[in-house]
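**Discrete fold encoding**
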Amino acid sequence: MPGYRNRTLAVATAAVLAASAVLTGCSDDDTPASVASRAESVAESLASEADRRFDDIKNGVDAKDDVTVGDTSTDDGRATAEITAENTDDSTKSFTVQVDFNDPDGNHRDTVLVTVSDVPAGESKKATARSNRDLGGDVKAEVERAVRY
């Protein structure tokens, strides 16, 4: 699909910019609770954007069981995790993977979408999920859903 990747990157960038604006806004009530509430709202917005992007994928097949996620680490303050997509189909396919970052209490902190393009039949390919912002503290990456197309 020509231009699909560029459109999805533009949408993701717009979502990140909107999230940044929400998180960096200042007011007289910037208590830890209000900042946490805004961060939760941003995470929910990113998850909604992920829903829209998955809806745009035509002829996709549920591939959550074909995607694994490694341990979560930190890179420049952002959470990262390596994902591996295994193509069990008989032709080259691409994957869109939603990775959620959650804290130890199960609170949703961030959502990212990762595209793993052109995975040859019967092979696997790796990519890195990177949080949209510094999450601070201990978080774990989980594959929320994946589509092969």
Summary: The CA atoms of residues 42 and 78 lie 16 Å apart. The chain has a mean pLDDT of 80. The chain is about 30% helix and 40% strand. Helices lie at 4-24, 32-56.
